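Explain my protein.
***
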Amino acid sequence: LSASPSDVGVGVRQVAFESSPANADTWTTISADATAPYTASWDTTGVADGLFDLRIVVTDNAANSTSSTVVEDRLVDNTAPTATMDDPGAYLRGTVNLTSTTGDSGSGVATVTYQRSPAGAGSWTTTPASWNTTGVADGLYDLRVRVTDNAGNSATSVAVTNRKVDNTAPTLSSSTPSDGSKVAAAGSLAVTANEDLANVFGSQIDGNPAGGAVSGSTVTFTQAFADGPHTLSGELQDLAGNRTPIRVHFTVWNATGGDYPYIEKNSFAAAAMTLAATNGVGQLTVPAGAWSGAPAGDWLVARVDPRPAGAVTTGFQANGDIYEVSAYWALSGGAVPSFDEPLDLTLTNGTGTVVPAALSGSSWLPVALLSGATLPAGMQQGFYKDGDTVHLLTRSAGTFTLLKDTVAPSKPKAFKGKSIGGRLVLSWKASTDNSGRIDAYLVFVKGTLNRTVDSSSLSVDMGKFSLRDQRSFQVAARDAAGNVSAKTAALVVVPKTAKLTLAKAKAALVKRGLKAGKVTYVFSSQSKGTVVSAGRSGLVPRGTAVALKVSKGPAGHARGEPRPESGQPTPPTTPPTAPGTSTPGPIGSPTDAPTAGGDPPAPDASDVSGAGTAEPESFNAAEVSSARRTAGLVLLAGLFLGAGAMAMRARRRLVAPVAKNEDLDGPILFWDERLVRATAAGLRRVTRFIQP
């Protein structure tokens, strides 16, 4: 309390502060102060709560006293308000409205404040009365209220403890039968969540309402399930009221053969899923990240429906069931026809020459064989084999089966080889197959598989080209089912035969699987009896007859006669006939000329002994008799005399008239020229006949 008295005379001696119950006018001194500023402390706890009047009494130094105006009805309140926290419930989610019961009989309630703390921690945080529980972590919390009255008295309520904040929806932990399973029989279906449940809200089995018994985190539906596929739908609801939609799929089946029922299973984007077909042969794998674009809160359900095989295209045989692979959104029900990552339909009945096929309209289209175990980007379907297991990879839903391919591809055509830039390059034309798909071409060297060439390539580089290359080459086609065509005829490199004797050339050809063909004898600067050239070069089919030109050695020719070029065939020649004379016949049969009837026929492809046209014997001068030499010299002399006589006669007929009229000596040069030419020609023919 404080006061500000004044005195214009002798001055203030003291100020007394007084109180009285309101309107009672029974004053009690609270305190007196003789020193300015004038104050007093009033301990209100010494009086009962209620209204009081207050005043001061001022005394000056002359003992004069004066009372101030009364300050009326001032409330003394030393009693705290009352505060009780209302229980918001055991489970809290979303926004919760906090309430309490408060009161104050004195000055009245001024403020109400709510507070929270992790259960048992005692660390209080002010919380709005409208509490958004999503702003805190799920868990147990203590709650209280703090009240302050207008006199400044406050009170804190007793805490409401261990109230659970739960803003997380429950999840399905397991089910019996499990999702995507095939069971022989079932009399109940139980689902278990990751927390205690209130129920399965809106539960239906195969579209019909169904009620389950709740026990903690498990809800059990008891009923008989008939053969075939079944689905439980509804929402798991926890004790806080959070809900999660669920679907549980299973199939009851205990028969073998016939038309198996379909089976379904949930697929979630973040995890891979496998689903076994009810026939026990097929299995579908949906990898993580295989799909996207689901409606909010939705997920994928995959289905595999096996059914008996039907008629197939000529050249194929059915090899097991047909599989219809499909998918749809679990909640919205829309079909899902394609996928971001390929699904893997695994079929274990892949023994032998089988190929998976996709149904297009009413026709089966064989699927391409992959070079590895992954489906390249941009490719819709492909397959690979792991032993007898076929993995069909597909980026789209569809109908698939396995076919046994009973027809091999056609043999590659136009198989040939050549030297290109010093490299031995094989090439061929594409094969055809009943499946429409050639998987690869197989290149064989000496009958053994050497390399596999992708079907997109119709040639292969076999290394540096060399005439010494003793390899044989063949190619065959392979289809996607593994059928291999017949091999092409083997190609071999024609060996070097030039400058070899005929016998060695034949041996070289036989060593390569070739044979000697027509043998032609020609004049050449090469040694007599050696091969001048072969009729084939490069690569030729094994068994080919290769024509050979063999040297007869160098030869002189009469002037005016054509001289054959080296390596060109020349028909046998006879000595020229001088005018007025007859040509003597040959003495015996020349041994270096071909047989009169032409070359003997070439050996067939099975002949590898080198037999063929017999090599003519060479002329041997050592075998010429001395009588034959004498006859030759006589003939030479006779020819010389005959040529001289002929020249004399010609001179008389042609030169005499000219000389007579012109008296010239020039024509004697013509006579000399004729004589020299005739003599030289005769000498050449005789010399050729008798030379060793």
Notes: Residues 557-625, 654-671 have pLDDT under 50 and may be disordered. DSSP finds three helices and 48 strands in the chain.
